[in-house]
Known about the structure:
The complex is a heterodimer of chains A (370) and B (308). Chain A is α/β, with parallel strands linked by helices. Chain A has helices spanning 2-25, 40-59, 79-91, 103-116, 145-160, 173-188, 207-215, 227-239, 255-261, 283-291, 301-318, 323-332; strands spanning 26-33, 67-74, 96-98, 119-122, 138-140, 165-169, 195-198, 220-224, 245-248, 269-273, 335-337, 340-342, 355-360, 366-368. Chain A is built from twelve helices and 14 strands. The longest helix of chain A has 24 residues, at 2-25. Chain B has a single domain (3-294), classed as ABC transporter involved in vitamin B12 uptake, BtuC (Orthogonal Bundle). Chain B is 73% helix and 4% strand. In chain B, the strands form two sheets. Chain B has a two-stranded antiparallel sheet with strand order 1-4. In chain B, strand 2 (140-143) and strand 3 form a beta hairpin. The A-B interface holds A 36-38, 40-41, 171, 197-200, 202-205, 207-209, 211-212, 214-215, 228, 231-232, 235, 239-241, 256, 259-260, 262 and B 3, 7, 10-11, 14-15, 17-18, 21, 123, 127-130, 132, 134-135, 138, 140, 142, 149-150, 152, 154, 223, 227-229, 231, 233-234, 237-238, 268-270, 272-273, 276-278, 280-281.
Amino acid sequence: MKTIKTTLKAVALAVMATTSLAQADTLKIGLAGPATGPVAQYGDMQKIGVMAAIDDINKAGGINGMQLEGVIYDDACDPKQAVAVANKIVNDGIQHVVGHLCSSSTEPASDIYEEEGVLMITAASTSPSITEKGHQLVFRTIGLDSLQGTLAAQHILNNAKPQRIAIIHDKQQYGEGLATTVKTFLEQNGTKAAMFEGVTAGDKDFSALIAKLKKQNVDFVYYGGYHPELGLILRQSREKGFGAQFMGPEGVVNSDLAKIAGEASEGVLATAPKSFDQNPVNQARVDSIKAKGEDPTGPFVFTAYAAVELMKNAIEKTGGTDPEAMADHIRANPLDTAIGKVSYDDKGDLTESTFQVYTLHKDGSKSPVK
Amino acid sequence: MTETLLYLIQQLINGLTIGSTYALIAIGYTMVYGIIGMINFAHGEIYMIGSYVTFIVIAGLLGMGLVSLPIILILALIVAVIIASTYGWTVERVAYRPLRGSNRLIPLISAIGMSIFLQNYVVLAQGSRDVALPPQITGGWTFGDPSVFEVSFSYMQALIWVATFVTMTALTLFISKSRMGRACRACSEDLGMTNLLGIDTNRTIALTFVIGAALAAVAGLLLGLYYGVVNPFVGFIAGLKAFTAAVLGGIGSIPGAVLGGLILGVTEALTSAYFPSEYKDVVSFSLLVLILLFRPSGLLGKPEVEKV
């Protein structure tokens, strides 16, 4: 009995010791994104990347002796919940955030971070308006919608060369923003889209839209939005014998598209961040993510990883965790990261595009278009 | 036939199918309302659960190597109906029966609570991602010159039309002819009096919920197969549209729910067909407001007689 008590005491002491240690030497990094909701898998990608970076840094002794800890906050890709999450992060005293994920969530949240002096790096939000407010503490490790839209439009004009183009979007900030960029770029180059229309996110029946596309003799459809709707559009197009070429943004690039659309997802084009997991530089990181039983191939895994790297480097170079000093450092000094060389313009946008055109396959994989 | 005409026919087929899917769910709403005068807001969630059960059963049976499609579908239907009915019965037991006789708003709120609970429960149990099923019933009829415009009408669409019509007829007959149906109508006339006359009103109301849930399961199976995708949030949107259809047709009337569903579906399809699809909901809900302005009790609803 006595031995048990002593052991218990020892364990209790040890636990107390580690907690107090952790309190003294832990830097908490907020990880904000959808952990639930229809686009939760993108939140998972971000989490995998951030946690991998944190593990690697901690294994190498932390930053100036500090261990990192990722704290997950769920905004469910809902702008209202994102505001609540941002306030909670501020109240929890966290000053460094990787996130949010959906542009519509990142935008309201970024206002709060800027005002409260929290450094925010989003690894996935591509809407241009996020960095147009002159925020000093807001960065991203992913290219803009406009870059992605322009790349898609260039591909349409130079490679696909369709006869009649339809541009469909889901009326949300991300999708409509992209669709508008594609439309504008095409028009500037003398090509007018035959159709430009919105669908409602969450709808299940697109038969009326597909009949209309068929009647318009459309042979190329650009879809600005996410995979659940595009998946159904593809599936129903196949059932109705409508065989145009489809193209989407990185919001449609995940294996669920193939699950929903089945055979119909074969050959769909999409712009997505370059496959950083294929880059030999990241081989060790890919292996350690795989060793944890997680998937390193998602488009946001390494952009999230790079966000943590940027924070680490800024802390080391500025010698502290002050968000404003870190922001100034990040803006002024390019850094080699898991996604290549990262350098920023005044707005906090990447100066180099990180997107590439891919062909998606029915087994959920993708291959780059040469 | 000209392209314009073929296109119109195609859009009418699409619209009637969308309408039938609304109608299938709306029948359940309207039945509960017709009998106890309350909106069962958890109905959409029961439909969603029906879809999930169907997917799980079909995936399970396919995994076990069963190949006969009719047997798979019948088994899936039976299991979905049984499980959804259990949920329907439980919803009534938990969220309605204890509140019987209280202010009408109270069970309404508890039903909304039930709906949120069920939605989140499925999120936790099944995950929030889309679950997909490969197409099971494929093929269909096509007509029209492919070089002009080819109209397609799939077997699945036909099945939905037939199912809606059969359900509507069977339910109307059940309510008007059977003994149980008579008890249901008595309950809707005067609950207290029916009780005094020796009819077990609690049992009758529970039965209404069970039938409503069984219908939601049928809808869950058909729409699950038709779209091939389900997530925990489909019930909310479908429920909203079906509720609109039920109100449009006259809440409480079963043929009204079907008519309302079809009108809503056709309006949506035709709006998408001839105007930008963005205006789909604007047009259909403006129509709802207009119809309710001129016929406040809906197209086939009976005007409410104020009891003195």
